[in-house]
Write a structure and sequence with these properties.
Length: about 525
């Protein structure tokens, strides 16, 4: 390897690693903010939280890599251009493409690794994270009693405490509603004080109440429902102790097999196989709907026998029989006509219901197929984004000639947001069925490919189209050529003279009003 290639790689790998971990951290904070309500207050251990963070970081790798490539590319080439190292290399006869060559190979390797990670590791981490998130959401909140607020953390009980002791476990002004029999608020216990202690194995809560009363409204079962009475039973006590089962508060793991067939948990081969199977089942379903409509709904063949008719569905009517429906209908009696019309209305309603249900089911099947197709294309688009954004960032860094963190971060975030918005818009259009899955998922790549080619071309040609002086010099030259034209110059001088006259008139008018105001002020003072 040449020394220049080593120098370029050394200049690039440091910012790349740094920006990669910064991107992971920022995206992880977004993940935590999104699922904060599901995690906080569940009494989860540090091991569970750490496991969730590891899986979340693994799922964010394919999103953080393109952003890291873009940001590090702008920083690296911006630093080289700002310190005139890039100019010195070019003065030695080395083109920008040759300078970028080792980084192109490196980013291509990053792209391959991103694809392998997305295809082999992400399905596993997605399965683990989705199962763990489901278990965390199902986990009941940690038992915590707040002063003056009813707590429903314990099943079948609603507990309120007026005041807590700061020196021990003693609680005061306790109110407990027992909903274990699902009869509403018919069983309430009031106590002056008490304690609530959870056993070491966290399976039971031992509640000890002092100086309290238990009120229970009982339902008499002997009377009629409308005449039921609710006699009250009151029990006073000096000390009462009971236990509440907390076994449902334990964190339990779900079976991962329930989520293995989801589109996020499959690799490319599995996605392709599942998509083909779903499409085949969908075709068979549509064919079944068609046969059902044509044979049982739209084209029912009925036979009429005698005055007391018996209506039934004939599977195969005679092929040579031609019946005039209007003439046949006029031969019916009034009762048969009413029966025919009633049967027709009923058949139309059944057909409408069948079509509505079939349309809803087929739409759901199509959405499911779209999900699998979108995920198949996502495996490639997120990887290809690395090399596309490299050809955006490297030329931009060479053109803007600004290193450091400030300007590169602003530009990279701007381009990444544009890329992300285009990607989300295309994916949404693909999910809705407006566009094919490949068009929606590859939209951002289609837009950024010519943009990268254009920026690379401009950087190779040492274009300065992003500098403000380029545009000011352009307009200055254009305006200078226009002023060289005598007619245009005369028109400009005319408007400039008219503008000066208008300003002079305005100044004179202001001066006149000022003098009039001063004279009025003097006359008022004299009076």
């Amino acid at each position: 390897m040449k020394k220049l290639d080593k120098f370029i790689l050394k200049s690039y790998i440091g910012p790349f690693v740094l920006t990669f971990f910064i991107s992971i951290f920022i995206l992880l904070m977004q993940f935590l903010w999104r699922y904060l309500d599901d995690i906080v207050g569940k009494g989860l251990g540090a091991a569970v939280i750490t496991e969730l963070m590891v899986y979340a970081c693994s799922n964010l790798v394919t999103t953080a890599l393109p952003l890291a490539v873009l940001l590090s590319s702008i920083m690296t080439f911006g630093n080289l251009a700002e310190h005139y190292e890039l100019m010195a290399i070019k003065s030695a006869g080395i083109s920008l493409v040759k300078i970028m060559r080792p980084l192109i190979v490196f980013v291509a390797g990053v792209t391959v690794c991103a694809f392998l990670f997305s295809n082999n590791i992400m399905p596993y981490t997605n399965l683990k994270m989705k199962t763990l998130l489901h278990d965390i959401r199902q986990q009941k909140p940690e038992v915590s009693i707040t002063e003056g607020v009813f707590s429903d953390a314990i099943d079948n009980y609603s507990i309120k405490v007026g005041r807590k002791s700061h020196k021990g476990p003693m609680l005061y002004d306790i109110m407990i509603y027992n909903h274990s029999e699902d009869n509403g608020n018919r069983d309430v216990t009031l106590a002056d004080s008490g304690t609530m202690i959870i056993t070491p194995d966290k399976r039971y809560m031992v509640i000890t109440l002092y100086s309290g009363t238990n009120y229970v409204e009982e339902i008499e079962k002997r009377r009629r429902r409308s005449e039921k009475e609710y006699p009250q039973r009151t029990t006073s006590f000096q000390e009462e102790r009971f236990m509440i089962d907390l076994s449902g508060m334990d964190f339990e793991r779900s079976n991962e097999a329930l989520y293995k067939t989801s589109y996020e948990m499959l690799n490319i081969n599995q996605l392709q196989y599942t998509t083909d199977s779903l499409k085949k089942n969908y075709s068979n379903m549509i064919a079944g709907y068609h046969n059902n409509l044509t044979r049982a709904q739209y084209f029912q063949k009925l036979d009429y026998r005698g005055q007391d008719s018996v209506w039934y569905q004939s599977p195969e009517p005679p092929a040579t029989t031609e019946v005039n429906i209007d003439s046949l209908f006029e031969t019916f009696t009034q009762s048969n006509m009413a029966g025919v019309l009633s049967y027709a209305v009923q058949n139309a309603r059944e057909t409408k219901t069948f079509i509505s249900q079939s349309a809803s089911e087929s739409q759901g099947r199509r959405k499911t197929i779209k999900r699998y197709e979108i995920e198949w294309h996502r495996k490639f688009t997120l990887s290809i984004a690395c090399i596309l954004l490299f050809f955006i960032g490297a030329p931009l860094g060479a053109i803007i000639r600004k290193g450091g963190i400030g300007t590169p971060i602003v530009i990279s975030v701007l381009f990444f947001v544009i890329y992300y918005v285009i990607n989300i818009s295309g994916e949404k259009a693909a999910k809705m069925g407006t566009w094919p899955a490949w068009a929606g998922m590859w939209l951002s790549s289609i837009v950024f490919t010519p943009m990268g080619a254009f920026l690379t071309y401009k950087a190779v040609k040492d274009a300065t189209f992003l500098e403000l002086s380029t545009y000011t010099d352009f307009f200055r030259k254009v305006f200078g050529k226009m002023m060289a034209n005598p007619k245009f110059a005369a028109v400009v001088r005319f408007f400039m003279s008219e503008e000066k006259k208008a300003k002079a008139r305005l100044a004179a008018e202001i001066e006149r009003h000022k003098k009039a105001h001063d004279q009025q002020t003097e006359s008022d003072a004299t009076v």
